[in-house]
Amino acid sequence: MRYRLGVDVGGTFTDILLIDQESGQTYRAKTPSTPHDQSIGVLAGVEKACAVAGVSPGEIGEILHGTTVATNAILEGKGARVGLVTTAGFRQVLQIARSFVPGGLAGWIIWPKPEPLAALEDTVEAVERVAADGSVVTPLDEDDLRAKLRTLRGVEALAVSLINSFAFDGHERRIAELAAEELPGVPVSISSQVLPELREYERTVTTVANAYVQPRVATYLDNLGFDLYVLRSDGGLASRANAKAAPVNMLLSGPAGGVAGATWVAEQAGFADFLTFDMGGTSTDVALVQDARPRVGRETKVGDLTVRSASVDVRTVGAGGGSIAHVPELTRALRVGPQSAGAEPGPAAYGKGGTDPTVTDANVVLGFLPSRLAGGEIVLDRERSREAVSQVAEAMGLPVEAAAQGIVDIVNENMFGALRLVSVQQGFDPREFALVAFGGAGPLHANALGRLTGSWPVIIPPSPGVLCAYGDATTCLRDEAARTSIKRFSQLTDDELWQMLAELAERAAATLEAEGVGRADQAVTYQVDVRYHGQGFEIPIDLALDTGLEALGKAFDAEHERLFSFLLSNEHEIVSARASVSGPRPDVQPVRLAQGGPTAEPVDKHEIWIDGGWAEASIYDRGTLLAGNRIDGPAIVTEMDSTTLVLPGHVAEVHESGSLLIRPLEA
């Protein structure tokens, strides 16, 4: 069908982007999120976008959805009651967990571990044992297990994680069959399907997390009603059925959509290396993209929970438009976030009962935000914002404008710290990257973040407030298959390595083929986890089709030296291998702006507080800008879903793809 729709649910707003695949024209809708039931906000947004475009929902061919339902279930502790089956002797695997001390110099702090997602009283032991080579040491005692499963009646989901099941999954599959008989209607997650890899604790906690969020995700997806695909944490898409079966792969679904959208936009503007900066109402997500490929990590972190699941390497800080500023009585030092006013009641400027000073209120006081947002649906109350920020001003003995500037400066520094985590801490110089800024609040702070990082140009995409939804709508189906096989290079040949990878690729390809993606339209990438023999950790290394063991070893050495600045003489060793299969990207035609001259006509003038005093800024309507237009700061560019601030001494140039490229005048 002609139309493709992207949906992204944030903490404050639900973003909808309807794309006409033939013309590339987009239709946007932004509705308040409904935290008690996200499907309400999604369905309202879909109806609104269709009304704007003048089409019926039945004309939409595909709906692509980035969701935070699984993430919120973890953060809010509102998942299912999970039962767990382990091998006899491993009942306390979640309680023992991994050693962790928060903070490099905080070893003296008493840190209570978070409660496991599966309680000890809901954990039973199966009499069975499998060796590391996959041989059965002790057969499964089915009669004993049936009796134990009956004691778990009342659980809402079941996880099965047996020792060495990555090498032999027969016992786990049989337990799933027994559970279907003894616990009818209870969804079962088995570790040999969720994460068929080495390390007992990581495999168990990932499987339990999958079971914990599974009922809530299934209910949510069923409530939406229409056919859809859900964004995975690694930036690919999964069918509704696969999303319901493996929701642990969707824990970072929302942020991954932003990175996918930023990659699409940066490519249109001619940039392959860039940092992404997604500032919404509640939090800010940042990532690094190199050679137009987002960095994908093997771990996903949500709150205190870390699971083994492929995800775009996104770092999140509690800094958004709704972040609350406060001055603690003890230190009298201004703090911003991580607490947020969220969607309800929201910043004071929204007039919905909020009284706490937020970043949005500070921007209103400084004059950076116009009086109307979201196409006029949200009217900002400047006086309420001044009253809220006055709380900070009085506590610090400052003028209201100075307090507002302090709030903005601090939140910028918080976000700068996050950008350093994905660049400097990973061995990358941010000055060698562009900066793609999006989200409802991102373009307002983007110029300042470019100045802090030295990342130029700062790219402001078209429709930055709904770019995550655009990313959902412009990515492709993906599936992954993995296997643990611990072998030193001397025990392996190039042919044996590629035979294993080919088998994994076949498994993943079959999944996409079942979704209607033919083999000719599939693309395969390979990755192997490598370490020095004797090491306790490994590094994932991407492989090209012609890569042999010798080249693989050299690639590992180079990455090891980049990360740790030293090499070892130990023999190389493979730990795990995986193959990822992707379908074709959708044929969405990009919009090309008509060419214009260097001069753009402002629609108004406006006073803003900048660099310690009031200055006149020109206001531009982004919908009237043409390719080649130049906007000198200070200036404000307004559009339906976001506002861009161009600082003094900087210029924004309109690219033909619709993006604004902001650079210092001297650059």
UniProtKB/TrEMBL annotation:
GO molecular function annotation: 5-oxoprolinase (ATP-hydrolyzing) activity
Domain Hydantoinase/oxoprolinase N-terminal, chain residue ranges per copy: 4-182
Domain of life: Bacteria
Start and end residues of each Acetophenone carboxylase-like C-terminal domain: 496-649
Pfam families: Hydant_A_C, Hydant_A_N, Hydantoinase_A
Single biological process term from Gene Ontology: glutathione metabolic process
InterPro entries membership: ACX-like_C, ATPase_NBD, Hydant_A_N, Hydantoinase_A, Oxoprolinase-like
Domain Hydantoinase A/oxoprolinase residues, every copy: 203-477
GO cellular component: cytosol
PANTHER family named in the record: 5-OXOPROLINASE RELATED, HYPOTHETICAL 5-OXOPROLINASE (EUROFUNG)-RELATED
Protein name: Hydantoinase/oxoprolinase family protein
Organism whose genome encodes this protein: Nonomuraea zeae
